């Protein structure tokens, strides 16, 4: 199976890049399944219902969220109605929506997608991500009940993301980090056959401070005072993420490649 995961969509420029480029990538790279993290797509804070529908219409099979999952209030009813949008699994059990589902892929194949939130350096006290993901993986054995498993670990600390990668090794096709908006260079296949990348980066303008216009973040760093709201940078976006090719029989990764498409970062293709 040919899988594509794209990192945090950042504001209007990120949404525009998804709408323009993702349909072309699906065709050119013969993609079977696409997951997009959309939790910063609306003004850099959360995902509105309309913007969620736009990302799905552009070719995403699943949209994952993160710590800003409920910032846009109109996403809440959509989480109950639209199974292709996932919030983190280790939110409260009373939270709307779900954190893991099995989806259909071409050829009768099945793909499990799950998202967990990290706890290190995060502002809210979420449930333990490791114990949250374990029963989901055990209920959907790779190469048995499902042909591929994608885990989005939305976290601040690279150490926690790496820990999740090794925790899931052999039980997932891909474990990929999101949240920091900075793409890492450590794409690899772990010993048990799981593809891993510490952070997919963002789909946004990299002439910025993690996707935001530079002036206000720099003012706060220098003076310790705020003057205005953060606003997403509006230049050309780079699509950042990871491509994985898997063995349908075992679900393990055969190939992994970082994706940097357009914008200020060098183009790359799997």
Describe the protein's architecture and organization.
This protein is an alpha/beta fold and 270 residues long. The chain has a single domain, classed as Purple Acid Phosphatase, chain A, domain 2, CATH 3.60.21. Helices cover 24% and strands 25% of the residues. It is built from six helices and 14 strands. Strands 5-4-3-1-13-14 form a six-stranded mixed sheet. A six-stranded mixed sheet has the order 6-7-8-9-11-10, covered by helices on one side. Helix 1 runs parallel beside helix 2 (49-58). The protein is globular and about 55 Å long. The model has no long low-confidence stretch (mean pLDDT 95).
Topology:
Elements lengths: L1 E5 L1 E2 L1 H18 L4 E5 L11 H10 L3 E3 L10 H7 L3 E2 L13 E6 L3 E9 L11 H11 L8 E7 L3 H11 L5 E5 L9 E2 L5 E3 L4 E2 L11 H9 L15 E8 L6 E9 L9
Parallel strand pairs: 1-3, 2-12, 3-4, 4-5, 7-8, 8-9, 9-11
Antiparallel strand pairs: 1-13, 6-7, 10-11, 13-14
Helix pairs in contact: 1-2
Residue windows where pLDDT falls under 50 for at least 5 positions: none
Query: Which CATH class applies here?
Result: Alpha Beta
Count of alpha/pi helices: 6
Gross morphology: globular
Could you give the order of the helices and strands? EEHEHEHEEEHEHEEEEHEE
Structural class: alpha/beta
Strand count, sense and closure of the main sheet?
6 strands, mixed
Q: How large is the radius of gyration?
A: 17 Å
Q: Helical proportion?
A: 10-25%
The CATH topology? Purple Acid Phosphatase, chain A, domain 2
Beta-strand proportion: 25-35%
CATH architecture: 4-Layer Sandwich
How many distinct folded domains? Answer: 1
Total count of strands: 14
Distance between the termini: 13 Å
Q: In what order do the strands lie side by side in the largest sheet?
A: 5-4-3-1-13-14
CATH superfamily: Metallo-dependent phosphatases
Q: What is the typical, i.e. mean, pLDDT?
A: 95
